[in-house]
Each structure stands twice: as structure tokens, then as C-alpha cells.
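Good day; I would like, with your permission, to put a structural problem before you. The record follows directly beneath this note:
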Amino acid sequence: MTPSDDDLGDTALVTPAPGSGLTVTTRVTGTGAAVCALAGDLDVETLAPAAATLTELVARRPPTLVIDLRGVAFCDSSGLNLLLKTRIAAEQEGTELRLAAVAPTVMRVLELTGAHVVFALRESVEAALAG
């Protein structure tokens, strides 16, 4: 992971999956909420860094965990399974999970499987952080 600072003063960690086309970026807000942005393909070949990061974030027990999906170009069943497992783990830890800026390709998977009804969906990261 490579640390960097954003314009809000939050420290972010960026984990590019070697050769996979998936980038995982995390930050913690001033209120303690965790934001995890995924960009690229979320599939069986690229899943490992996202799974490790989300598991680590849930273990920290932030009050809110926002997964920013605006940059996800493709999501297969393993990506959906990761989101579902993360939702259950977050609930068990007392963390509220919200999906933000869900890319159309991911929304299609959520809608086709009926999974959209189990997630708190927000149009943007800002809206997800606001509640």
C-alpha cells in the first residue's frame, strides 16, 4: 500500500493489484468513517486486494464503511459475493455499510440478483457519508 494525502487532509492508502487493473483506495474521514474506493474490474482474478482491504476495514469497526463503486467497470459473481460478505461482516461488527456511486454495470448485477434490496445505496460518497 502506498500512502498519500488528499485535499481534505485525510490519509489514503492505495493498493494496486499487480497487473489486474483493480485499484483499491481507502481513507478515514474526520468523523471516523472509512471510505474504500474500487476502480477497475472486480472479478475472481482481481478480488484479493479488495477482499483483504475490506476485511481489514471492517475489523477496525468504523461507525460507517462506504464502498465507492463509481470506478468499477465490471463485476462478476465473486465481486457480488465479496460485497455481500462484507455487508454481513460489517453488520456483525456494528458498522453501517453503504454503497456509493454504484456504476451502472454493478447496479445491473445487483438488480438482476435482487441484492440491491439488502444494501444502503447512495448516489455519491458525500451522500453516503451524510447518511
Summary: The beta strands are 2-5, 11-16, 23-28, 34-42, 64-75, 96-100, 120-122. Helices lie at 47-59, 77-93, 104-113, 125-130.
